[in-house]
Please model this.
Amino acid sequence: MLKSHGSRGYSENGEMPNLKSIYDLSDIVINPLTIGTGLKIKSIEALGFSKALISTSVGADGLENGINSAFLLATMQMNFAMYLIQLFLILILI
Model:
């Protein structure tokens, strides 16, 4: 199920038959986790599908060597907004 929000620039997705189908619809992935331990599979999946990833430090546990090269680290809510705007502008120019 895909529910588009048109001018808002994002969509809400229900259960998907496989990961590839959802990642094929995405250019940017965010991982806004604030609690948790261990390696976050969602971050690994996004990187494995070659998607631009914005994550908190919690969502990037175990991936510290990739900060600002493999993914962007948002240390504050404003960072998420700033990085999203930058990535949207890059996508528009491509």
Remarks:
- The beta strands are 2-4, 11-13, 28-31, 52-55, 72-73.
- The CA atoms of residues 47 and 67 lie 12 Å apart.
- The chain has a mean pLDDT of 85.
